[in-house]
Amino acid sequence: MRAQSSATAPASVAVPAARARPAAESSQVSPRGVLQAALGVTAFSLTFPATAWGLEGFGPWSLVAVRSVLAALIAGACLLALRVPLPARRHWPGLSVVAAGVVLGFPMLTTLALETSTTAHAAVVVGLLPVTTALCSALRVGSRPSRAFWAAALAGAAVVIAFTVTQSGGALSSADAYLFGALLVCAAGYTEGGRLARVMPGWHVIGWALVLCLPLTIPAATVALSYEPVQLTAHSVTGLLWVAVGSQFLGLVVWYRGMAAIGIPKASQLQLAQPLLTLVWSVLLLGEQLTPAAPLAAAAVLVCIAVAQRARA
């Protein structure tokens, strides 16, 4: 990781949309940006199964607090080793939104949901996340996706929702309130992080957001560990390490870089594949069963992603 990266966009990105279009939102899609966003989605697809493993040995509050502390220590060490200067004062409000939504809100709400929900049902929130992120982007940074883009996004979301709800038996659980809350705060964090990744390297965005949370996460981890019993097993430790290093830090690094390169709306559509990837990992790691509808749903989602990527945003 370097202080200078492809996530840093030219100064023209600050020009209002009426005068100039940001390069990341043009019709030209960067293959490298697509790859980076796809790597982020792959890392995120393992989050729910890894969280389920972590919950085998940690309480929900301990798991979230410890994962945030571990990720922040790694990020802080990288920032310190590379002598990265503090962000400008004008960027701290945006970093606070990233911290509240991505570092604290989404992990906490989804972990609480997974105490009573299966990973298949929890994947519903991920199916809705691309549309919600694109909507937040339109409201926050002024992006205006085309009608074809919205049609593909809504169609893909409908496929994912129908598939994941069918997999979970078609019944809504008490965890839905946590899941929809997680959806909203994560979309806000992704949008703000994608905006900041145009003016600073993507790994700086998540790195400083994680460090910003340390005054909260260290005391929270200390208190939670003193009240919640801990059982260290291969599954629980592996799950903790993945959600801390893979999901909370490295996944977000490549995800924000990808969003900066290809634009928030188009990057968000790659997440339409995330619930299906999560279900695959759930079969392999948790022993859950998939129906024959899985290949059909996967093919439909991939078509929607291809249409969304080609639509002019």
Structure description:
By secondary structure, the protein is mainly α. Helices cover 72% and strands 0% of the residues. The chain is built from 12 helices and no strands. It has helices at residues 31-45, 47-54, 60-81, 92-114, 119-140, 147-167, 176-196, 202-227, 234-262, 264-269, 274-286, 293-310. The protein starts with 30 loop residues before the first helix and ends with a helix. Residues 1-27 have low confidence and may be disordered.
Which stretches are poorly predicted, pLDDT < 50 over at least 5 residues? 1-27
Mean pLDDT: 82
N- to C-terminal distance: 30 Å
Please describe the biggest sheet, giving its number of strands, its sense, and whether it closes into a barrel: none
Fraction in helix: over 70%
Q: Tally the helices: what do you get?
A: 12
- What percentage of amino acids are in beta strands? under 5%
Q: Label the structural class.
A: mainly alpha
Question: Which H/E pattern describes the elements?
Answer: HHHHHHHHHHHH
Q: What integer value in Å does the Rg equal?
A: 19 Å
- Topology, number of strands: 0
- What overall geometry do the principal axes of the alpha carbons give? globular
